[in-house]
């Protein structure tokens, strides 16, 4: 029987594509390599599932810097994402930063609700089915019962990128598509931490947040916080600049600038540091006058000898250089850049080289910051691929 659709992968893109196809009247087989659905989706929601951001559509789209993605985002705006989640029986709320979360905060209730909807639509879920490429014209799978093949009318590949391989996004599909003439841009880490060649061991403060802080690269400045690790830095303020930092990396790394006291101006800091120090150590003086935390003092000392002059020290606290040497490995990144090139896809996200095969989600060459942008684009491309596959199946 060929009159069915196969969706491979159960992240947000695959789940959305399966829903669109099934709601359009097609029988859908949803294949997942892992024993359960949405492993990376569930991991993303472990500390609070940020589904989208309540933001003007134009500024929201600008965060991606990816023109080919914009038509698909225009059909699934942040408000549409919120409505879709509410339609699954999951109320949402908007935080002070504009980030939108389900009231339940976790991904598991949402994944269960999606699974329930797909079941009601007759979607056939096959877990433990790992796609292994093609056998002739058929899709080949390694399954708990042995090798199996499927020959659907249309296929949606929602296989993820190359980050978090233990959750299924291992990029094993790259050589299979490349062998069939699909252009693929090399994967690079996105929303990742960076290594720093610390002058002193940072084990004692590893895992400690540096906050509040402002991080700058050139004219871009991000306020927030980051975490010191044994090998370097990671966290929200670093992720927000990670694309620019990665692309600016040279043989000697890249230098970003920290404002360790973003709420205080230079003159006020200078005045505070000018108070009599007496016999107190510099660390004690910084604590008494500025309430500088131990982790900020440790980062400050990494930049070399601490100036005794109040004005020079204040200037360093407001513009502290920190050299990053390399990004953390791609397997540790939250997401990736790279993947199936847009030129390999038609406007409905069908592969030119493989008629009837569509792509969705992180396996396509786009990247986005954290803060709801990643899940929104996965859902948007999942909807676009599902619509495109449905139209193709109907001729």
If you had to describe this structure to a student in words, what would you say it looks like?
With 395 residues, the protein is α+β, with helices and mostly antiparallel strands. Helix content is 32%, strand content 25%. The protein contains 13 helices and 20 strands. The protein is elongated.
Q: Considering DSSP H and I runs of 4 or more, what fraction of the residues is helical?
A: 25-40%
Counting helices, strands and paired strands, the structural category is alpha+beta
Largest sheet: 7 strands, antiparallel
Radius of gyration: 24 Å
Mean pLDDT: 94
Beta content: 15-25%
How do the strands of the widest beta sheet line up side by side?
17-16-13-14-15-12-18
Oligomer: single chain
Poorly predicted segments: none
- Helical segment count: 13
User: Strand tally, please?
Assistant: 20
Spatial separation of the terminal alpha carbons: 17 Å
Coarse shape: elongated
Structure summary:
The protein is an alpha+beta fold and 395 residues long. The protein has 13 helices and 20 strands.
Features:
single chain; 32% helix; elongated; 395 residues; 20 strands
Task: Map the helices and strands.
Layout: E1 4-8, H1 12-23, E2 27-32, H2 39-44, E3 52-53, H3 57-62, H4 70-74, H5 78-87, E4 92-94, E5 99-102, H6 108-120, E6 124-127, E7 130-135, E8 138-143, E9 146-150, E10 154-157, H7 174-178, E11 184-190, E12 194-195, E13 209-217, E14 220-228, E15 232-234, H8 236-248, E16 254-259, H9 266-273, H10 282-290, H11 294-301, H12 310-318, E17 320-324, E18 326-327, E19 335-340, E20 357-359, H13 373-393
Helix pairs in contact: 1-6, 1-13, 9-12
């Amino acid at each position: 029987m060929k009159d069915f659709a196969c969706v491979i992968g159960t992240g947000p893109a695959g789940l959305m594509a399966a829903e669109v196809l099934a709601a359009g009247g097609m029988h859908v087989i949803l294949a997942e390599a892992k024993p359960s659905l949405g492993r990376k989706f569930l991991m993303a929601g472990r500390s609070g599932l940020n589904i989208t951001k309540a933001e003007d559509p134009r500024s929201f789209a600008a965060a991606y810097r990816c023109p080919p993605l914009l038509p698909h985002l225009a059909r699934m705006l942040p408000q549409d994402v919120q409505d879709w989640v509410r339609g699954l029986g999951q109320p949402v709320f908007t935080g002070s930063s504009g980030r939108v979360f389900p009231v339940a905060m976790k991904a598991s209730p949402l994944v269960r609700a999606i699974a329930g909807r797909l079941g009601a639509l007759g979607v056939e879920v096959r877990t433990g089915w790992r796609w292994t490429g093609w056998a002739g014209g058929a899709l080949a799978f390694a399954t708990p019962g042995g090798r199996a093949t499927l020959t659907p009318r249309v296929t949606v590949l929602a296989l993820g990128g190359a980050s978090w391989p233990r959750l299924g996004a291992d990029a094993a599909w790259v050589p299979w598509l490349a062998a069939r003439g699909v252009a693929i841009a090399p994967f690079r880490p996105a929303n990742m931490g960076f290594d720093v060649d610390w002058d002193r061991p940072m084990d004692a403060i590893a895992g400690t947040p540096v906050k509040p802080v402002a991080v700058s690269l050139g004219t871009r400045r991000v306020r927030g916080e980051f975490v010191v690790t044994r090998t370097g830095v990671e966290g929200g303020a670093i992720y927000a600049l990670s694309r620019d930092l990665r692309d600016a990396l040279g043989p000697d790394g890249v230098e970003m600038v920290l404002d360790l006291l973003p709420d205080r101006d230079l003159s006020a800091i200078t005045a505070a540091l000018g108070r009599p120090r007496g016999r107190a150590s510099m660390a004690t003086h910084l604590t008494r006058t500025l309430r500088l935390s131990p982790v900020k003092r440790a980062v400050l000392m990494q930049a070399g000898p601490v100036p005794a002059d109040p004005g020079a020290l204040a200037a360093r606290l407001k513009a502290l250089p920190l050299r990053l040497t390399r990004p953390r490995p791609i397997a540790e990144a939250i997401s990736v850049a790279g993947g199936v090139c847009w030129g390999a896809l038609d406007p409905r996200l069908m592969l030119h080289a493989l008629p009837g095969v569509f792509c969705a989600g992180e396996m396509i060459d786009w990247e986005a910051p954290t803060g709801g942008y990643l899940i929104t684009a996965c859902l948007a491309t999942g909807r676009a691929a599902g619509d495109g596959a449905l139209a193709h199946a109907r001729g």
